[in-house]
Amino acid sequence: MSARNPYFATCSPGLEAVLHAEVKALGLRRVERQVGGVAFEGTREDAWTANLWLRSAIRVLERVTRFEARDADELYAGAREVAWERFLAPTGSLVVDARSNRSLLDHTQFVEQRVKDAIVDHFRETTGERPSVDKNDPDMRINAHVFKDRVTLSLDTSGHSLHRRGWRRHQGRAPLAETTAAAMVLMSGWNGRAPLLDPFCGTGTILIEAAWIAAGIAPGAMRSFGFERWNDHDAKRFARAKQAASSKGALPGKLRLLGSDNDRERIAEAHENAAAAGLEGRIEFEVASASDFAPRPGWNATIVTNPPYGLRVGRGDELERTYHDFGERLRRRCEGYSLHLLTANPMLCDRLGFAGAPRQAIINGGLECEVLQVERI
Ligand SMILES: C[S@@+](CC[C@H](N)C(=O)[O-])C[C@H]1O[C@@H](n2cnc3c(N)ncnc32)[C@H](O)[C@@H]1O
Hints:
It is a single chain. The protein is α/β, with parallel strands linked by helices. It is built from ten helices and 15 strands. Helix 3 packs across helix 4 and helix 5 packs across helix 6. About 30% of the residues lie in helices and about 25% in strands. The protein is elongated. The chain starts with a strand and ends with a strand. It has two domains: about 150 residues, VC0802-like (2-Layer Sandwich), CATH 3.30.2130; about 170 residues, Vaccinia Virus protein VP39 (Rossmann fold), CATH 3.40.50.150. The structure holds S-adenosylmethionine.
C-alpha cells in the first residue's frame, strides 16, 4: 500500500495550468505539468486524495508498465507480463481504452483487442480462470496510450470520469462539464467571499461548483471510484479518508451566489441540482434575461459564465444582440467586477466589446473554445 507509483491526472487541453496548481496544492510529489494533464508520484493513498480533491481533473491514471512495441506481438508480450491479478480478481470484468499517436500501432481498436487478449491469457495461465469484458460498468478500466511506438498501460483509478460528482439530476440542453466549471472558477482567482454571478446559469453547474470550492467540499465526496473495486483496495482505510473529505465544509454565511437564465425550465432544474448538492436555499436563482442584467453596483463581484454560442443553444442574429446587450450592461452596471466568460464563438465574444482582454484557449466538449478574462471591468 505504501509503494510509490507514477500517476497521471488528465484534464481538458488548456486547463493544465489550473490542474497543475491544484496538484501542487495537495502537496503531491514530483509534480510535472504535461500536455493534457499533470504527472505526479505517490502512494495509493495519494491517488485517493487526488480523486477525492482534484476539481479540474478528468481521470487519475496509475501506470503499471511502459514498453516499446512496433507490432502486435511486442504489444501482446508487454501486456501479458504484468501481474494483473494483483489488482483484478480472475472472475472480475475489464475494459481497455486505447489512444495512439505517431506510432506504427495506430489502430486503437486493434490495440484494445490485443491488450485485452494478453490480460485474459495471463489470467488463464496463472489462475485457470478468465475475467470478462464489460464496456459499461467494468471492475477495472485499463488505459493503453501509444506514443512514438512506446506503450504505456495504466489502471484508471477514477472509474467513471471525475466530472460525475454525483449531484447532477438534470443535464439541461448544453451543460458545462463540472470539471471545466470548477476550473473556470479557479482560473478567475475568486476569493470565495465576494458575490459570484452567472447570468446564463442553465442548470447551475458553475455556481454549484463555486459553492463547493468556497465551502471546501471535496468534489469526490458524493461518488465512488474505480479503485474501490480492485483486489488490493483497503476499504476500511479509504472509508476513513472519504469520511474526512466529506465532513469538511461550511459555506460562508454571508456569501451570495446568484444565477439567472431566461429559460424557466433551466432554473427549476438548477434548483433541483443545487438541492442534490446539499445547497438548498444557498444559491439565489431567478428567471431573467442577461440583456437586462442589473446587479448591484459596488459589489466588486466575480462573473463566471457560459452563454450560448449558437451550436447547441440559441440562434445567430438573436445571439449577436444578446452578447452586445450583455456587454453594454456589464460596462454600465458592473464597474470593478471581473468577468470570466467561456464561448466557442470568437465573433460573438467580440460583440461584448472587451477588445484586448486576454483569452485562454481550451477544449470544451470536443470544441475549441476560449475563456475571455476581464480582470476589472
Ligand atoms: C451554454 S448554456 C449554459 C449552461 C450552464 N453553464 C450549465 O452548466 O447548465 C447557456 C444558457 O443561456 C441561456 N440563455 C440564452 N439566452 C439568454 C439570455 N438572453 N439571458 C439569459 N439566459 C440566456 C440558455 O437558456 C442556456 O441555459
